[in-house]
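My current task is to audit a protein record that another person submitted. I have pasted the whole thing underneath without changing anything:
***
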Amino acid sequence: MFRAFTLQNPIRKVSHIQLRGLCSASKKHIGVVGTGNVGFNVASSLEQAGHTVTAFDLNKTNYDRLQKTKVILASSVDDVPKNADVLITALPKPMHVKAVMEEGKLLHRLRPNSIWIDHTTTDYNQTIRLCKLACDMGIRAIEAPLTGGMALLRKNMMTVFVGGDEDAVQESKPLIDVYTGTFLYFGAAGKATIAKVISNMLAGAHLIAAGEALMLAKKSGLDMESFFDGIRLSAGNSYVFETEVPLMFKGTYDPDFTIDLHCKDLGLGRIISNAHGVPFDKLEMMELTETMYRRAMERYGGHVGSSFPAKMIEDDLKTPQKLENWEKWDYAVERVTGGSFGVVQMKPSKEKHN
């Protein structure tokens, strides 16, 4: 899931290690597989920066918007890596990465010494294995999951967690800087994916806690708008509270991320936990978070927004949180010097409709 992450250096956009010999973003031929929210932004941003971009997705949802750009829409996924200096994948799940890159043999179609950048939040073991497979074939591969949410994505301000061969990372950084705001290098392949999955696990726990806190406030007879402002301005605040509680007030529960994908990430967290000597039942809060997310997905379906666990408690207690006149709520983000992202609330007027 895409969530805000602390900025290490909000001005220069460099990682927390010193990258040597950063090259300029010379014009390249780039292939993009996956044109969902992330892939669309990657493809359109790189095209606007002057690169030649060829893209493909089985899901044509964003094709109308891409047709308004100079992005070349391939008729087949096999056409994407032709002449590509860099191939970028932004896919929903590990099985999609495996199907495209390994089973579909897209790795075999890349030129030797080209670079594969994977933005998918995926299985870290699969990432390690596929990066090694790519290396054996003369392809340089790096993992680069993104985090931050749709508001940051639209402004090219997301944080990217990067892992893999450092030479490939250095060469890729100028391209990735085009559509991200903060670049953090975690070391060997697999490390960045683990960090991203843990971030999404934490975001899920925040959402569950926010929904329960809101219900307790409502049942206690508090004015909900005052309560929202009170938590925003207190030690109990979080990025999730500020950006997803208003979705409860709106009655949408959808931060442009499905509960199916969030459950996928929580399952990946379970794999990481068990593989590193931390039995998942010892992470009681994370285990309960996954249980509640899966219960909500079973009730409402995998296509609903990832904030639906909060709706589940509303439905269980027959106490909706929707407020009048919040339909037009939105938010923006600003950099906080030396800190994290600040959320700028675009709240509705206090006036009520007659």
User: Anything to note?
Assistant: DSSP finds twelve helices and eleven strands in the chain. Residues 1-24 have pLDDT under 50 and may be disordered. Residues 51 and 237 are 41 Å apart (CA to CA).
